[in-house]
Amino acid sequence: MRPIHIAELGAKPRPVLVLTRDIARTVLNTVTVAPITSIVRGIPTEVRLDSTNGLDHDCVALLDKITTIPSAALGRRVGHLHPGQEQHLTDAVRAAFELK
């Protein structure tokens, strides 16, 4: 399951969905993440998340804003993506990068 962590992305800590695979995280000093926001636009590049994912309220992971950050910027783990949401993640990445 893909973890959700709090990360230092700027002015204040924000939740992020970690996209880097677990085995790579053990050897890399960076991780690729999708920021999470409570502003839901209802577009194909978003993955809906809620309290069942460990978050305080309904939000979305923004797959059109994928970024790579230092591993040290990751804070505590707060939740995870459920296996049933992996297809939504795949669809959102495809939409963000116009993949077939």
Automatic annotation (TrEMBL):
Q: Which residues form the signal peptide?
A: none
Q: Under which name does UniProt file this protein? A: Endoribonuclease MazF3
- Return the broad EC class: hydrolase
- The EC code for this enzyme is 3.1.-.-
Q: What InterPro entries does the record tag this protein with? A: PemK-like, Plasmid_toxin/cell-grow_inhib
Q: Which GO terms describe its biological process?
A: mRNA catabolic process; rRNA catabolic process
Q: Which SUPFAM superfamilies match?
A: Cell growth inhibitor/plasmid maintenance toxic component
